[in-house]
Amino acid sequence: MSKDISFNTEYWRFLWSSILIALSACLGNVVDSVIVGNLIGEDGVSAINLSKPVTQFMFTISMLLSTGAGMLVGMELGRKDYRRASYIFTLSTIGCLAFGMLQTVAGLFFTDDITRWFCTHEQLLAATRDYLFPLMMGAPAYMMSWALATMVGVDGSPRLVSAAILIDNAVNLCCDIIFIQWFGWGIEGSSTATVIGHIVGIAFMCWHFRYPDHHLQMAFAGGKAGATFRAMVSQGAPLALASISLTALLFCANSIVLSTMGRTGIFAFSVCMNILYIYNLFLSGTCRTVQSLGSIQVGGGDNEKFRLVISKSFRFITVAMLTTCAFIWIAPEAVTRFFGADEGDMIAEGVRALRIFALSFIPFCYIYTAMVVYKLYGYHTIALFISLALSLTVIPVLWVISLTAPDYLWYSYLIAYAIEAVAILVLHKVTHARFQLKSSDMPPA
User: Which domain does 122 fall in, by range?
Assistant: First the structure.
């Protein structure tokens, strides 16, 4: 009984710490949009949303190099192979920093060109460029914030990560107001504040390496670099593919909505995407807990506790999603006005879109969590399918509805996720049947 209580305590410690880690992405985007919407206007909120394919791409690479590495580090810590765990940590850190610096170089020379790829509306072009440039200059900090949070958390300091994330967001919030309201930097001040917040948060997380009981350190020996790097990428590939698919979806959805519904539509869509961050606050925290705590149980060979992690996670995400959805249905107009809307048509479109998207995000959260579980159980084919289909299913549905029934454009996500849920169920049954057939063909031990 005492072991069950201890594990239950450990689970909730991981979960709430992971949720606070996810708070960085949530507040870093939502707070920016709220402040920009109220101090600059609706077009500022739209500009932030149009910039998201770039920031999502940076997040994807960080996830590929750190989330997969974090799973492997958790397994090695479960086996008490600290030398191997440190080597994986080192490769992941170097990879994130190197890619972040490449993004900075690209920003120095190609920001204008990159902006025109994602924004075709002249009225929104300048604001999108001004928001994007500081983010690309701070790309190393953006990537290391996520990567270091993953490693420090799995190494036993989730509370320190939580505190660092709270400080990160507090600095971001204060600098947002100072840079926009006092310094008059406009929307550029908002993204600059985000980068500064990440830098401060990283500095606090580095304190973990002064603790005497930490296991991870910079180590340049512990295996073959090529094989280790491939293992990191392979482990993180389903989540990274889901993220890169989301990047493609953001780009395509922004383009379709902007061309179909103009400024009013893109603002309503931007508000909906910000609400997705609220769902993602709980979703990301849940998935990070399954990845970190679950991988430790897998590494230690404790299948019973691994199943307990999964059941607790699905129960929590269900309650969190239904609560968030109910709030949006009760007060959609208040949510729309919260992001700075003051025009009647924008408020009306925002209300209509929010209620539909509030329902659409529920199957999205279940499907995403299932992908993580399939990966840890070794169902790599299903995990890979989900990672690709999660976003790519939406694109053709969105495109077809924009051409045939544009008045129903907001239903595209809900229809696409329903289609994917059916496809996953079929694939699961086929894969499970094949596994049972192979097991029956095996000779007895």
Answer: 2-441
User: DSSP letter string over 201-255?
Assistant: HHHHHGGGGGSTT------S-SS-HHHHHHHHHHHHHHHHHHHHHHHHHHHHHHH
Helices (H), 301-343: 303-330, 332-338
Residue type, 269: F
Q: What is the DSSP string of 102-133?
A: HHHHHHHHHHHHHHHHH---HHHHHHHHHHHH
Dihedral sign of CA atoms 267, 28, 54, 125 in order: positive
Contacts of 403 (CB under 8 A, 6+ apart): none
Closest CA to 255 of 53, 43, 32: 53
The amino acid that residue 370 corresponds to is A
Q: pLDDT tens digits, residue range 237-278?
A: 766 776 777 778 888 898 899 889 988 888 999 888 888 878
Task: Report CA dihedral (318, 4, 71, 316) to the nearest 10 degrees.
Answer: 10
User: Does 438 have pLDDT greater than 50?
Assistant: no
Token couple for 416: 């696409």
Give the closest residue to 29 by CA, choosing from 107, 142, 140.
Answer: 142
Residues 399, 333, 276, 184: is their CA dihedral positive or negative?
positive
Q: Apex CA 233: angle with CA 381 and CA 27, to 5°?
A: 95
pLDDT of residue 307: 79
Do the Cβ atoms of 334 and 33 come closer than 8 Å? no
Q: What does the angle CA 300 – CA 303 – CA 305 come to, to the nearest 5 degrees?
A: 90
Closest to 143 measured CA to CA, from 58, 238, 35, 22: 58
Cα–Cα distance for residue pair 352/349, rounded to 1 Å: 5
Q: Where are the alpha helices (DSSP H) in 339-445?
A: 344-377, 380-392, 394-404, 412-441
Task: Please give the helix or strand (H or E) that residue 15 lies within, else none.
Answer: helix 2-39
Looking at the predicted structure, is the pLDDT value of residue 124 above 60? yes
Give the SS3 label for residue 172: helix
Cα three-residue angle 415-416-419, rounded to 5 degrees: 90
Using CA atoms, how far apart are residues 130 and 372, in angstroms rounded to an integer?
36
CA distance 297 to 302: 5
* Number of compact structural domains in the chain: 1
Whole-number pLDDT of residue 102: 92
Cβ–Cβ < 8 Å for 315, 369:
no
Provide Rg for the chain, Cα atoms: 22
Contact criterion met (CB below 8 Å) for 120 and 36: no
Check: CB of residue 59 under 8 Å from CB of residue 96: no
Spatial separation of the C-alpha atoms in residues 351 and 339, rounded to whole Å:
12
